[in-house]
Amino acid sequence: MRFGVFCTYENPRGDYRLCYAAQTELVQRAEALDFDEAWVAEHHFDPDAASPSILTLLAYLAGVTTRIRLGSAAVLLAFRNPIQVAEDVATIDLLSEGRFNFGVAKGGPFALQNKHFLAGQDLTRDMTLEALELVNRLLYEERVTFSGDYYKADDVALAPKPLQKPIPTYVATTTTAAIEYAARRGFGIMGASPIPLPRIVQLVADYEAAAPGADPRLALARFYYGAPTRAAALSEAVPFIRRFSERMRGIFLARGESVANFDPDGILERSLIGGFDELREKIASLHEQTRFRSLLLKPTSLEADKNLRALDDFANHIRPFLPAKTKLEQAS
Q1: Which helix (H) or strand (E) holds 298?
Q2: Distance between CA atoms of residues 43 and 247, nearest Å
Q3: Residue 39 contacts by C-beta under 8 Å, 6 or more apart in sequence?
Q4: How far apart are CA 227 and CA 232, in angstroms?
């Protein structure tokens, strides 16, 4: 098992400077505690999730860390110029000394994103996959000429080139077609915190059916708060979960769509929130069911210092008591 942190740059106090400082400190604490990875989400036009410039944030984190791997979770390719993305990805990989994981997605159900970036929701999946094809060619081929439905390149020679060849690439999706696309190309897959466990299990099965014997390298995010007792963990986590649930339910209700995945009780049930003994068992069971490569913890206190403490507690009271790595995991 690999462990990481998932950063959504939540901003409960409405202070962007403090928000950025808190998330930076969280990543640095994770590195000091020997976490393996830190992933940053991309959101736009949302004061509660203040991470629109995801590649800028990752470049900064590359400069204030030395060992932890850094990942995009995920770059919303339909809203960006793929040539510029390729340049930024190569630059971050160089700045981080080859510590970058490149995750992409089509973007969630946030109408303002599609409106302001002029990308209809019915097109973003196809735009994302076409852009990813172009980005990967630019990263690893000397000169690229490309003509697709949405993007074109005429004899482009990217400079700089990345250090890693290839950069580990992930697709964040819940659609079978995109999972099959990732499997055929050897990309990893990502699962977001609210996605129910049965759906995660099905995504892994779809991947393995599309590419028998391949490793989906699942990076699975889950809301997390550990404490000596379940009651203590809930007292910190519930206000965050309720706030998140209200925001997401409002978005989905406005679209006339189901809000079943954002019921606060359901989110709590599939999160890693509880006492230390309980969480050891839940993580072991989660690994057995999904065979995740990386578990990404999203600390769920509204207080930055308590999120740091939650990471400390994970490192001291949970991680040392989990099952030992398999030989395959130790070699990866």
Answers
A1: strand 294-299
A2: 13
A3: 4, 5, 6, 7, 70, 71, 72, 73, 101, 103, 219, 221, 296
A4: 6
What pTM was estimated for this model as a whole?
A: 0.94
Please name the CATH architecture into which domain 2-230+271-331 falls: Alpha-Beta Barrel (3.20)
Q: What is the DSSP letter of 316?
A: I
- Cβ distance 205 to 249 under 8 Å? no
Amino acid at 275: G
pLDDT in tens, 248-298: 777 776 666 666 678 889 999 999 999 999 999 999 999 999 999 999 999
Residue 49 DSSP symbol: B
Three-point CA angle 266, 269, 270, nearest 5°: 95
Which range (36-45, 105-114, 161-170, 243-252) has the least confidence?
Answer: 243-252
Q: What is the pLDDT of residue 58?
A: 98
Q: Distance (Å, rounded) from C-alpha 58 to C-alpha 122?
A: 29
- Which helix (H) or strand (E) segment is 222 a member of? strand 219-227
Could you please report the per-residue DSSP string of 235-272? HHHHHHHHHHHHHHHHHHHHTT---GGG-HHHHHHTSE
Beta bridge partners of residue 100, listed in sequence order: 70
Note if the bond before 239 is cis, omega within 30 degrees: no
Among the listed residues 299, 322, 319, 318, the one whose alpha carbon sits nearest the alpha carbon of residue 309: 299
74 prior amide bond cis, ω within 30: yes
What is the C-alpha to C-alpha distance for residues 56 and 63, in angstroms, rounded to an integer?
A: 11
Measured distance CA(141)–CA(297) in Å, rounded: 35
Which tokens is 139 given? Answer: 């990263």
Tracing tokens 């949405």 back to the chain, one arrives at 150
Q: Band of the pLDDT at 67, cuts 50, 70, 90?
A: very high
Q: By the 8 A CB rule, do 195 and 261 touch? A: yes
